[in-house]
Write a structure and sequence with these properties.
Blueprint: H1 9-16, H2 19-29, H3 35-60, E1 70-71, E2 74-75, H4 78-96, H5 104-123, H6 126-131, H7 142-159, H8 161-177
Helix pairs in contact: 1-8, 2-8, 3-5, 3-7, 4-5
Transmembrane segments: 38-56, 76-96, 103-123, 143-162
Keywords: Membrane, Transmembrane, Transmembrane helix
Length: 190
């Protein structure tokens, strides 16, 4: 192809990532059973962590509509809600049945998201269960962030893994070279 006939890089990159192509990459990357649920759990985990950190920071600074939750004068930490959510998701997975069960596909995705949120709420207060002391705003409370990053990294490697990363890198490389998109038969499943 002559240099003058090449599609501009910015146009090629923009036109390659259509909804259909991204859906094709998504389904190819998550062809193995369980990999999509790990991916959804990972996304929910990090999103919930960012949201809960934002909410607790606004409560601590007395900014915004959020306030501490208490019952009978006792402060209820968000790790309690995380534990309840983890227990509920575990029970749901036990009761769900196998892949042939009715509503399995939707329910297993929903429970994976719930697991990610519950794990984030719980691990965000890791120092509380490790030391049985509220160290959230103390310098020692940084262990909670390390626990979140460690578990989140493991969950992400399991969920996103090399197959999705490889497919996306391939797409980006083809886009910036102005090459045509590889067909679905050229994209090998993980």
């Amino acid at each position: 192809m002559a240099a003058s006939a090449r599609v501009p890089v910015h146009h090629a990159a923009r036109s390659r990532f259509t909804r259909e192509r991204l859906a094709q990459i998504y389904h190819t990357a998550f062809a193995k059973p369980g990999s999509e649920r790990l991916f959804l759990s990972s996304l929910a985990f990090f999103l919930a962590f960012v949201v809960v950190r934002g909410i607790t920071t606004s409560i601590h600074a007395n900014v915004g509509p959020f306030h501490n939750v208490g019952l009978g004068g006792t402060h209820i930490h968000h790790l309690v809600w995380g534990i309840f959510l983890l227990l509920f998701c575990g029970l749901g997975l036990l009761a769900l049945g196998g892949p042939g069960a009715r509503w399995f596909h939707f329910s297993s995705r929903l429970l994976a998201v719930g697991f990610g949120v519950g794990a984030a709420l719980t691990l965000d207060e890791f120092e509380l269960w490790l030391h049985l002391a509220d160290l959230y705003w103390a310098p020692q409370g940084s262990g909670s962030i390390r626990a979140v990053l460690l578990f989140g990294s493991l969950l992400s490697v399991a969920g996103w893994g090399w197959p999705l990363t490889r497919l996306l890198l391939k797409e980006v490389a083809h886009s910036f070279r102005g090459e045509p998109a590889p067909s679905a038969r050229h994209v090998s499943p993980p």
